[in-house]
User: Which sequence fits this backbone?
């Protein structure tokens, strides 16, 4: 039986995770979910400290097969710990953050149907957290880019394109300005591309891609988009607007021997306890997690049921044009299961 470290998160995280667990249990799936603490709320309750993740949680994470994490809060205050997600990605070398961007039935966005995959190098770049205050008026951050980690992310992107039968990978950079760091990233992607002669590599500067994403997003359909940590974090969130809501974007973080699954959105503390937030991203992240631990049938059942609930449009949350709450939408998925 697979062991899953379960982090319920901050803000609306616990209610979203509870909704997803209700759906998981309805499939009869056999997995052990091990609750563990992490996040800003835990940190503030426990008189703070150097990390949002206690030692006991690290032990659970290290002994589990994967992690299912609800959204957590990261404080924008100098001297506070780095985010839960960044900490886990770096500790377990989860080098590929993956976010599918695909239009749902009955929820066509303002610019039409889209279907592409965002792959983000998730362990370095500006998220390395190397910052210095040189004086009261000057601060610097070091953007760490390595060939090894750029190559890993690029290879993951090409393998995903191959697996899906897609014929294009798009690499994002600002290599005309960041000529050394982004130049190294782009060179790494081009070197990997040589091993995939049936897949075209197209490279875009990040500003041009941002413009094309809102002008003609269909040009990227059936493509895998790969980029460095900060660029892809921002661009994949922009892309979520093409499918109507960040509440629809589920994600996974893959390493060679471990994975973490989480909704792409934040903890939305202003909605905490209101039974209001869209649970789609959390439910589908959980379904993806089931596929990862070998429960592929159950995972597919959840995907299919969730898509049907969205396509029917009756038991959906306010951002999808409905009047259902978090629990009610999850219950509608359970009913179909």
Assistant:
């Amino acid at each position: 039986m697979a062991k899953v470290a379960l982090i319920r998160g901050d803000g609306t995280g616990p209610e979203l995770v509870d909704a997803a667990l209700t759906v998981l249990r309805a499939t009869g799936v056999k997995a052990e979910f091990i609750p563990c603490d992490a996040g800003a709320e835990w940190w503030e309750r426990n008189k703070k400290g150097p990390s949002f993740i206690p030692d006991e949680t690290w032990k659970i994470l290290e002994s589990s097969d994967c992690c299912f994490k609800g959204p957590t809060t990261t404080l924008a205050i100098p001297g506070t710990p780095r985010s839960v997600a960044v900490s886990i990605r770096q500790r377990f070398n989860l080098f590929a953050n993956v976010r599918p961007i695909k239009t749902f039935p009955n929820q066509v966005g303002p610019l039409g149907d889209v279907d592409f995959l965002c792959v983000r190098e998730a362990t370095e770049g500006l998220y390395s957290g190397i910052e210095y205050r040189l004086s009261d008026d000057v601060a610097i951050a070091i953007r760490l880019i390595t060939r090894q980690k750029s190559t890993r992310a690029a290879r993951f992107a090409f393998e995903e394109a191959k697996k899906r039968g897609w014929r294009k990978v798009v690499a994002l950079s600002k290599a005309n300005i960041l000529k050394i760091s982004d130049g190294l990233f782009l060179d790494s992607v081009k070197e990997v591309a040589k091993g995939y002669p049936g897949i075209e590599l197209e490279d875009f500067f990040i500003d041009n891609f941002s413009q094309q994403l809102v002008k003609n997003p269909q040009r990227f359909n059936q493509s895998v988009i790969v980029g460095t940590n900060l660029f892809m974090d921002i661009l994949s969130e922009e892309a979520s607007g093409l499918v109507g809501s960040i509440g629809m974007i589920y994600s996974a973080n893959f390493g060679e021997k471990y994975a973490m699954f989480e909704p792409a959105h934040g903890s939305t503390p202003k909605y905490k306890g209101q039974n209001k937030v869209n649970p789609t991203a959390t439910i589908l992240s959980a379904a993806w997690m089931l596929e990862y631990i070998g429960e592929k049938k159950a995972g597919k059942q959840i995907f299919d049921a969730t898509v049907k609930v969205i396509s029917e449009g009756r038991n959906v949350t306010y951002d999808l044009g409905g009047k259902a709450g978090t629990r009610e939408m999850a219950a509608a998925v359970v009913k179909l299961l």
